[in-house]
Amino acid sequence: MSDFVSGFWSVYVALVTGVSILGCGVFLWMQSKVKQVPAGAEPELKDHVWDEDLQEYNNPLPRWWMWLFYITIVFALGYLAVYPGLGSYKGSFGWTSAREYEDEMQKANAQYAPIFEQFARQDLKSVAADPKARQMGERLFVTYCAQCHGSDARGAKGFPNLADSDWLYGGEPEQIKQSILEGRNGVMPPGLLAGEEAKDAAHYVRSLSGLAADSIRVARGKEKFAASCSACHGPDGKGMQAVGAPNLTDQTWLYGSSETTILEGIAKGRNNQMPAHKEFLGEAKAHLLAAYVYGLSADAARTDKK
Fold this sequence. Notes:
Layout: H1 7-32, E1 45-50, E2 54-57, H2 63-82, H3 97-120, H4 124-128, H5 131-144, H6 146-149, H7 173-182, E3 184-188, H8 195-208, H9 215-228, H10 230-233, H11 259-268, E4 270-274, H12 278-281, H13 283-305
Antiparallel strand pairs: 1-2, 3-4
């Protein structure tokens, strides 16, 4: 009921609930007054007919079935007396879902915290090489990170691939851990170039990674890039990890490499934020999670060397 600022809604919910239960009780009482058809007698047929010849007998509910409904009503009244269900009334037990969640989290922390702390005292690279720690890190990743980066950690449009060796803010274990704990906020300002100048710059950017581009526009775009883009992406277009500016000379594209997509980024800018998880996960879980993500990148680097 915390979403409703008026006390009217508490009364309304309690009233609707009470009237509904009372209505069910009255209906059952009315049905209990209907006499059972004597054994051997023909029950009355209802007037309505379905499918030309299908009719319904006017039989009352069986007594055992009716008593089950009465028991349900009694159970409902007992439940509403001890648990919240009548508006803002908290019930005699004072139960809340938030308190139950906190109790469950305390039990889980008591059980698993020693395991997390065991790995938290180890070097991140050592944790990444531990099979047990890797399994635990994978479960944490699927729970907290897969919604954005995918269950295989290969990301999606606007969400970085964590299973390769390309990193916006650095792929060393401590850098990954800092990203998890503190979050990241990558911003590309909009409107630095427009019209034909933006198109020239887009062709130049495509040429940096070997994509098809108009040579005349590339020549013009190089000057525009140096004046408007090199402060973040570097004069060679290889990016700057300090500000999260991506490398434009490789084949890794966060939003796509088409001319239309690049022009959209130049015109509208980009604002890509990863929330901080320090308060939510805590140091020990973030340590294990960072080790798992680092392990994914290390595996990719070894595969690339092969």
